[in-house]
Amino acid sequence: MSLYRTFSAVDAVEYARQFGAVPDPHTLVVADEIGDGNLNLVFKIRDTQGVSRVIVKQALPYVRCVGESWPLTLDRARIEAETLLVHAQYCPQHTVKVLHHDAALAVMVQEDLSHLHIWRRELVDGQAYPQAAAQVGEYLAQVLFHTSDFYQHPHEKKAAVSRFINPELCQITEDLFFTDPYRDHERNRFDTALRPTVEALWRDAALKRAVAALKHRFLANAEALLHGDIHSGSIFVGPTTLKVIDAEFGFYGPIGFDIGTVLGNLLLNFCGLPGLLAPRDAAAARDNRLQDITALWHAFSVRFSALIEVYGRDPALVESGYAEQFLKHVWQDTLGYAGTELIRRAIGFSHVADLANIVEPQARHACQRHAVELGKTLILTASDIPDAAALLARVRQSGA
Ligand code: SR1
Ligand code: MG
């Protein structure tokens, strides 16, 4: 018999008292359900002083934003906690701390991050966090290197691949990133004004072949334990601190998917800024986004290469020149996956505030079209974009 039951606020407080690792558990008294994501319940647990102390997160047996008509495995809670624990082993400074988890209840207690801000909200408001992009690059280099074949023993790696098999969550990505946006699917969501742009996607055979290749690599290339959904809403930032949360899409996949997802979200913000802010503020924020993109790739690639040089264990993979060759392949994937993130967030099932919050419809449509066109460019011309400088040139040329 299953032990699972959906938590009430009272259950969440009781659970936090037992498993929250707080020094004075009897002072925990109130839970506010604050989940605004697509999938889960999230309770913020406060003490008698009203101070937020710990987070209790529980998976529901269905997709929260749709309801019971879209059932979804509870095993995602185990995968999330275990992915975060592995990532914390290699990059504790940028991974949210898991204090306790229980697979049967699909519940996890994690550190409270109320002193930080969700990066997406800050980006939408035009707030700059100059260290954030390099910190994400550091996180990705550490967790992806240490779970890859460059570092893991082949037996350990194969066991880990099997432990992180995540078919239902991967299917969401397979459908929402690579399939639905490129055909007339009921899950797509776009205003009528976007229809000509969207129908052009559906007719674009070269684009669909390039997306097929990206999907194929997502399905087949078990390169490292990915976060799997690392968009700017899964990242908390402060002036000097950054923490990644929400790893329920974790699985062994292509390294460029994680980097491309973050990069795609920076570009979504770039596309949305003219609709979100006054012209001068938007221009300044756009410059910051371009700097973020350079900083992200620089931090990732420099650290990943250094880790291979110093800690690489596979005698064949550490061959001189191979790290450079591998990073070229990761860069190409990064561009392609960033392109798919741009397109699916503009016209697919799951939209982002960077575009959706633009109130004036014409401005919103212009920014959404920009995201789609830029996404197409990245997917179709990745091989002509050898480095971050070339990418910035392409992005500057693209335009609303
Ligand atoms: C049905 S879930 C839709 C999206 O929300 C998650 O955060 C992932 O990005 C997923 O694609
Ligand atoms: Mg998420």
Description:
There is one protein chain. This protein has 400 residues and is α+β, with helices and mostly antiparallel strands. 53% of the residues lie in helices and 13% in strands. The strands form four sheets. It has a five-stranded antiparallel beta sheet, sandwiched between helices. A three-stranded antiparallel beta sheet has the order 8-10-11. A hairpin with a 4-residue loop joins strand 2 (40-47) and strand 3 (52-59). The protein is globular and about 60 Å long. The termini are far apart. The mean pLDDT is 97. The structure holds 5-S-methyl-5-thio-alpha-D-ribofuranose and magnesium ion. Residues 37-39, 63, 172-173, 176, 229, 350 line the site of 5-S-methyl-5-thio-alpha-D-ribofuranose. Magnesium ion (MG) is lined by residues 37, 229, 234, 246. Substrate binds at residues 229, 344. It comes from Symbiopectobacterium purcellii. Homodimer.
What is the end-to-end distance? 56 Å
Looking at the structure, what is the overall shape? globular
| Total count of strands | 12
The top-level CATH class of the largest domain is Alpha Beta
The share of residues in helices is: 40-55%
Supply the CATH superfamily name of the largest domain.
Aminoglycoside phosphotransferase (APH), C-terminal lobe
CATH architecture designation of the largest domain: Alpha-Beta Complex
How would you write the strand order of the largest sheet? 1-2-3-7-6
Query: Ions, cofactors, ligands: which are bound?
Result: 5-S-methyl-5-thio-alpha-D-ribofuranose, magnesium ion
Low-confidence stretches: none
Number of helices: 14
Radius of gyration: 21 Å
Structural class: alpha+beta
| Rounded average pLDDT | 97
CATH topology-level name of the largest domain:
Aminoglycoside 3'-phosphotransferase, Chain: A, domain 2
Tell me about the biggest sheet?
Answer: 5 strands, antiparallel
Query: What is the H/E order?
Result: HEEEEEHEEEHHHHHHEEEEHHHHHH
Strand content: 5-15%
Domain tally: 2
Oligomer: single chain
